[in-house]
Amino acid sequence: MPNVWMVRAGQGGYVADEFETRSCVAIGWPEVGDLSGTKSTADVRAAYLRAYPNAKPGEVGNAVAMLHKFRSTFRVSDHVISYDRASREYLVGDLTGEYQYQPGVVPDHPHFRSVHWTGRVSRDLLRVASRNTLGSTLTLFSLPREVWDDITHALRGEAVPVPAAVEAEHAAQERVEIEESRQDTQARALELIKDKLSRLDDVQMEQLVAALLRAMGYRTRVSAKGPDRGVDVFASPDGLGFQEPRIKVEVKHRLRTAIGAPEVRSFIGALRQGDRGLYVSSGGYSREARYEAERSLIPVTLLDLDDLASAVVTFYESFDLEGRALISLVKVYWPAE
Fold this sequence. Notes:
The chain is of the alpha+beta class. Helices cover 40% and strands 19% of the residues. It has 2 domains: 4-161, ph1033 like fold; 202-326, Trna Endonuclease, Chain: A, domain 1 (3-Layer(aba) Sandwich), CATH 3.40.1350.10.
C-alpha cells in the first residue's frame, strides 16, 4: 500500500507555485550536495556534517532523518501532499520519479522528486482531526490513512461521514490542544527571555530594571558605579522624590547565589517613611529573606529572575528605545476563543 507524505513548500509555502508548475516536490539544505550516491543514514549524516560542521546535535538528527526519507524512503507511486498557504489549499498528487539533485529548478530546494498532481483540496473541507494532523511544521512527514481518506473524499467532492458528536469531540480536542500549545510556547518563551536576561552584565541589569520602571510610568535615576553609592536605581512619579511613592531599588545579578535574610534586612534598614523597596535578585532568595520582606513595616517587593522576565513581558510594549536595546522581543499572536 502506498505511503502518504506531506512535503512543505518552503517556509510559509513560498515555493508552492514552483511545485505545481514544475510537477515536483523538493526540499532544501543545498550545501549538503547530491545524495544520489548515499546508501544509508550514516552516509547522509556524513554529508550533512561536512556541509554544516557547527550544527547542533538535535538539528543534525532532524535534518538527516528528513533528507534520508526523501532520498531513500519515498517510493514511486506514494501519495504526496503540499500546502499552498496563499489559497489555503492542499496540492494532492502521486510521486512519479526517483530522487534527483536539481539545483536551480526550485529556488533553494535542490533535492527533487517529480510528481503528478491530481488536484487541489481546500483546507476548509477537511475534518478537524485531519487539519490538526496536517498542521505540523516539519519539512516532511508521513500521514495516517484516515487523513488520506479524508483528502480523497474531498477531492471527489464527497463529505466524509462523521457523526456530529465525533466532530464536536474533535473540535473540543482542537481547542484543548491549542491552549496546551499556547501554554507550552509561553513557558518556553519565558525561559528564552530568562536566558537573555542572565547574559546581561551588572550595569545592564540595573539599566533594564530602570527601563521596566519607566515602562510602568515612573521616572528613574541609575546610581553611578562606585563605593557608598546608596541604592542602585531610584524611581518616583516626578523623578526627584518629591512625589510618592519613592522607589528604591537594589539589584543583585548573581545567578547561582540566593540572597539571604541579612542582605534583605540591611536593605530594609536604609528605607524611610514614604519609601517603597524593590529588591531584584537573579539568583533568587532564601526562605528567611522572603520572611524579612513580608514582615517589613515599609512595603518591600522581591523579584527573582522569573518575576523579572514576566514583568518585562507584561510591560514590554511600553519600553523605551534604551530598554529595548537591552533586550529585543517580538510579539506573537495566538488564536483566542
